[in-house]
Amino acid sequence: MLNTVLTALTLLTQRDSATLVARYRPIADRVIAAATADSAAYRRLAELVDRFGHRLSGSESLERAIDWTLEQMRRDGLQNVRGEPVMVPHWVRGQEQIELLTPTRRRLPMLGLGGSIATPPGGITAEVLVVSSFEELERRAADAKGRIVLFDVPFTNYGQTVQYRRNGAVAAARAGAVASLIRSVTPYSMRTPHTGSMAYDSLVPRIPHAAITVEDAMVLHRIQDRGQRPVVRIEMSAQTLPDAPSRNSVAELVGREKPNEVIVLGGHMDSWDVGTGAMDDGGGAVASWEAVRLLQQLGLRPRRTLRVVLWTNEENGLAGGNAYRDAHAAEIDRHELAIESDAGVFAPRGFGFSGSDSALQIVRWISALLEPIGADSISRGGGGADIGPIMARGVPGMGLEVDGSRYFWYHHSDADTVDKLDPVEMAKCVAALAIMAYVVADLDHPLPRGAPSATR
Ligand SMILES: [Zn+2]
To answer: What is the pLDDT of residues 286-295, one digit of tens each?
Structure first.
């Protein structure tokens, strides 16, 4: 009896899957053809970054880029276009430099880390203690006092290696260091330093914290291994100013049957203050926007509303994601899904999904429509920093997954420019985002909510 029921359920499931794919296949194929017919998304991204350059929270360039984006969204004919106000942190780098004084004298490329304090005027001159890990620093804590600690830690994966960028200043200051340096968080370097956010601890003295290149970290390490003590002088004039006004850029394709039920998709508009933030995350922002513009252009209006949100302040505060959660608290339960593209717009592979097992099953059916562009992989877990706050309130989340082999080469550096991206790959990202968002927004029933099963 049980077997019969199970067989019936399996057949039903298979039929649902086949029905869904058959129903949406012609639409998906149209979207793929239209997205890949030209380089519209890439051209729009190039215009954004050529006109406005990098876009750190609090900067004039970010606000002008948001003005331009809202204006273009209106011209696209999208609905309910608006900038939703957010107060954001305002850190400015100012002048900064590092010079190796002993055993030879030369300037090194350097980037202060976001949120770092300045050095005193005239800088800090001290011997460098090079360590390969937090554990080594603990063992050699007696040697760190009064020195500049350099964490020369090779890249393994971002989550592991970024700990030194985030927590290096606290660990070094705890050991009595006067400043801290990291080897840039990247697996590949052409002597370009990489910036990013960092943290202080209110119980530990604040010391300046900066990144040097992989190459120079290795130089200092070799000097130490030869029994010499390298000496450097660091000067930084970074400041944290009062919070500044910014906006999340929002536009909609209003649903034809259930306009109050929402699928959010987006990337973040802000970037670090180096390069042009083309890959991180101008590409994800423009691809999400283009996905909705394309659906509108094709006359494809799903049952529920598609809402593009181009977040502000992902890089150093998440004020945009938090402000959205608070401003939309009353309609969080009507958010069926939130999608983020913040891993670069290289060749798409599929999506990571965080939500219930039954929702995961439906998303897997939909992904069959993305097979022609190689984006049909669905992995468990995924989302994005900006949608994190609404995911924490129960909204299923999804992150676009792409070929990540080159992402961290350019991430948060002067090399994050649009030429690193490929128009065809970006167009496929647009198609993947458009199809996934459209089909979820058009399903007979909302994605079932709930936690995933414990088996991971
Ligand atoms: Zn990003």
So the answer is: 999 999 999 9
Q: What per-residue confidence (pLDDT) applies to 456?
A: 46
Rounded-to-integer distance, Cα 265 and Cα 293, Å? 12
Checking if the pLDDT of 14 tops 90, the result is no
Measure the CA–CA gap between 433 and 183, rounded to whole angstroms. Answer: 35
Distance 283 CA to ligand 1 centre (A): 10
Sequence-distant (≥ 6) Cβ neighbours of residue 10 within 8 angstroms:
none
Q: What is the Å distance from ligand 1's center to 412 Cα?
A: 9
Report yes or no: 56 and 273 within 8 Å, Cβ to Cβ: yes
136 tagged catalytic: no
Give me ligand 1 centre to Cα 268, in Å.
Answer: 6
CA distance 145 to 143: 6
Q: Do the beta carbons of residue 261 and residue 74 sit within 8 Å?
A: no
Distance CA 354, CA 240 (A): 35
For residue 454, what pLDDT band results from cuts at 50, 70 and 90? low
Q: What count of other Cβ atoms lies within 10 Å of the Cβ of residue 383?
A: 24
Distance 280 CA to ligand 1 centre (A): 5
296-354 pLDDT per residue, tens: 999 999 999 999 999 999 999 999 999 999 999 999 999 999 999 999 999 999 999 99
Ligand 1 center to residue 343 CA distance, Å? 7
Catalytic residue among 314, 315, 336, 401: 314
Asked, as a colleague might, if the bond just before 103 is cis with ω within 30 of 0, I would say: yes
